[in-house]
Amino acid sequence: MNIEKKRFILSLVFPLFFISIIWIVKIAEFVFDVDLGFLGIFPLRISGLPGIIFAPFIHANFEHLFANTIPLFILGIGLFYFYNKIAYKVFFLIFLFSNIWLWFGGREAYHIGASGLIYGLAFFLFVSGMIRKNANLMAISLLVVFLIQQKRSPLIKSFCLASC
Hints:
This protein has helices spanning 3-31, 51-54, 62-82, 87-105, 115-132, 135-152, 154-159. It is mainly α. It has one domain. α3 (62-82) crosses α4, α3 (62-82) packs parallel to α5 (115-132) and α3 (62-82) runs antiparallel to α6. Mean pLDDT is 90; it is low at 153-164.
């Protein structure tokens, strides 16, 4: 097996593992008919601090989960492919600091999902792509952000079928 193919396959491992955990949490919520939303981040409340760790694993419904799965997968592959030596450090720093900032500055409500992580990864790949003059990194991050925004746009939603 050539080096590039091996590198690509290894870049799939952690993103698939992380996404699997998120899906297991949602399936467990569904099967046991529980709502773990109370484990989300509630800004400026001590009771909301555990959400800094748990919020990215909790999603409102399967549509929300699916909307986060593909961007996490693509950006995760990009991170672990292009930055394999520092990928874990970058991933967990973005995970932690995006949620800490949300705890300090979010609106007064429970916040769940992995959007902060997704936008943090997209920002990292875009900026590092600019610094390294790597158009692939910039393209990956911009494509993912563009697709996320298209999915959330009311105009696009009105044209989508039920599966969109």
